Amino acid sequence: MPCTFTAPMLTKRIIPCLDVKDGRTVKGVNFVDLVDAGDPVEQAYIYAQQGADELVFLDITATTDRRKTMVDLVKEVAKQVNIPFTVGGGIRTVEDVNKLLHAGADKISINSAAVRHPELITELAKAFGTQCIVVAIDAKVLDGNWKVHLNGGRLPTNLDLFAWAKEVENRGAGEILFTSMDHDGTKHGFAVAATAHVTDMVNIPVIASGGAGAKPHFANVFKDGRADAALAASIFHFGQISIPELKAYLKDQNIPIR
């Protein structure tokens, strides 16, 4: 099934992320200490009504537990929302992607499988179009260098964040979702400098993730980090910032928002 959705390039996007485990939305700090954050289908509907530009669903234990991403959840979400959404977790084959797109997903996200089998990026881009292939990169600083991690951040690699970002673009990724594990769930702000370096390295959209805790954090990652989109979870799930008030704030900061 070819993917026809193309993300807008000019306006900045606000993307709630729903990390899913056992059919429930969960959220932690630095990828651990997970707490329940609600029903993902109900939350998807609410976020779409509030003006979210897109949604991301990540089955955070699919790779570790050797499970496939929940196709049934995708079908339910597709019935409830009219905005694009991306699904990731445990995707390893063309057939996995085909099932998710047929179930209603607009884009898919691969992470660990892309690192282990980089040719998969090219294979999926050729089969479905680059515009619906998102490569998620989880990274943290080890000995002064940003290193890519796998399996929901559990497994460190020697892969350099910035070199890998360039490689995934060259292999056919249409978008990069960069999560700073050091910032994830801390609410202290995004990894702005690292995000800026990634955006400077590539010519495809970059989604910044990890650390959103206040409205100025979004302005910073859009202005100084030059991100095309910003992703957040707990501040939306627990009602600390609403999407309408965030968008109004960003417009006041002269940041182009839909």
Regions with little confidence, pLDDT below 50 for 5+ residues: none
The helicity comes to 25-40%
Largest sheet: 8 strands, parallel, barrel
Tell me the CATH superfamily: Aldolase class I
| Number of E-state strands | 12
Q: Please, how many helices?
A: 10
Mean pLDDT, as a whole number? Answer: 89
Q: Give the second-level CATH assignment, the architecture.
A: Alpha-Beta Barrel
Spatial order of strands in the largest sheet: 1-4-5-6-7-10-11-12
The percentage of residues in β strands lies in 25-35%
Tell me the series of helices and strands, N- to C-terminal: EEEHEHEHEHHEEEHEHEHEHH
- The CATH class name reads Alpha Beta
Cα(first) to Cα(last) distance is 28 Å
Q: Outline, from the CA principal axes?
A: globular
Task: Give a verbal description of the structure.
- The protein is an alpha/beta fold and 258 residues long.
- The chain has a single domain (13-252), classed as Aldolase class I (TIM Barrel, Alpha-Beta Barrel).
- It is 35% helix and 28% strand.
- The protein contains ten helices and twelve strands.
- The protein has helices at residues 40-50, 71-80, 94-103, 112-116, 119-128, 161-171, 192-201, 215-223, 234-237, 243-252; strands spanning 13-21, 24-29, 32-38, 55-59, 85-88, 107-110, 133-142, 145-150, 155-160, 175-180, 206-209, 229-232.
- The protein has an eight-stranded parallel β-barrel with strand order 1-4-5-6-7-10-11-12, surrounded by six helices.
- Strand 1 (13-21) and strand 2 form a beta hairpin.
- Helix 1 (40-50) runs parallel beside helix 2.
- The longest helix is centred in the first third of the chain and has 11 residues, at 40-50.
- The model has no long low-confidence stretch (mean pLDDT 89).
